[in-house]
């Protein structure tokens, strides 16, 4: 598929160029996503201003969870966040045009946009990540570095899988953007919390069904050497690749069914 | 190369495999709270390589549904469709490499980039090597007169420019079959003529097969040697344009503007007087090109009155189709 790769790379590059054409609006968007990131950071600060610990985490640990959750979600959002626009693509007939090209439909949807403005939120997350690692006095051992890398790479892939799973569903639910956002943004919100703030059933849901806890909370336990709790064992964190594979498995299934449904229903 | 080594040879010459073969093709749409709609109903036809086929019918007759099934966008409810010998659902990507499609209403260009970049991207998507991409783009740009628009963002193109660009985009990878859905809709006379000329030339030089839906009788007359008429999902007519005219009488209407108010132009040979406006300054006469010529009618009219201006109205496709229906029912 090397040559298919060339095509996707050319498409992605063109998406980047298109955004460079509108510098002022791009700068405004970028600034807006920085503000969003800061507003969410403020929320964490406010909570820990009122309570020293929440869900077994102190402020420094919460910062690390915040940073990883935001980094992975914003990176996934940058890459494939526009997948939730599928209903618009269906309505405008852009999906039909995808069918007329010798590339996969999903590949074309994923590369149809790159939301570079999300770099604003990513940069907030990166800065907070640096601060959290320094304040948490994290020593660069194979465990911490390995976990950090795994969390960033697989966590981003896991979040991207959520976007794709939800895009597949939207072939049925053409007005289902709200429903879709409940999964993606809901997952992202859950990822930002200590799993221990949730009652058991919710914690189990966000660990084993929509495994958002794997992107930030569980890795944080490993990196900081925190004990965790029931259904929140730090050792689980190393199963992140499996959780990612699970999400992508479900995502590809819903996507395939979605495409079949579209061909069956005709938009 | 797509040349089959062995082909059955009949008395009339080599018989090639059809480029489109549709057999009992049916598509039913189930709708919530409404009766199921059979958009395409047991359609059967074949198109041979090199043919130019007009696919016409009223809005909602099933034209777009058929095209979607031929290109793998829609699954048939029953029956089969094979396009360039492939199953459109199973071999969609391979099909996309060999077929070009222009949907008048849906653009395959990147609206926020200069036109040139759309061609570059499509060349990458179709894996054309640099030399071939440059040569082919250059050809199309010249033939479709797109040079001045290459640097413009697609969103700023006029409709005529955009349609020509869409056609170029669909033909970039030199497909053996080109499907055009309403390619001339909304175009001015000059743009239409240019586009038709280009399609005729493409067909002549490359033997490209054309399948087009249109509401414009002019498209059919100038481009197609065969017409399929679809009505309520069924094939109502399959034959030549002359045959179609023979079935329903493809009448044209001569509109004459006279220098002064005149009596109705009754009794011009082979014509039917349709009416007058402005106390007879403008009059309309229908004639069948099978019986007489526009020149003969004009000569007969000029003997009686002085002409200031004239125009000929093409038969309206909806009207032709309507008459097919009434003739067949």
Automatic annotation (TrEMBL), chain B:
It is found in: Cell membrane. Pfam families: ABC_tran (PF00005). It is a peripheral membrane protein. GO terms for biological process: response to antibiotic. The keyword ATP-binding applies. One of its GO terms (cellular component) is plasma membrane. Keywords: Antibiotic resistance, ATP-binding, Nucleotide-binding, Transport. The keyword Nucleotide-binding applies. SMART domains: AAA. One of its GO terms (molecular function) is ATP hydrolysis activity. It comes from the Bacteria. Residues 20-257 form the ABC transporter domain. PANTHER family: ABC TRANSPORTER ATP-BINDING PROTEIN, ABC-TRANSPORT PROTEIN, ATP-BINDING COMPONENT. This is ATP-binding cassette domain-containing protein.
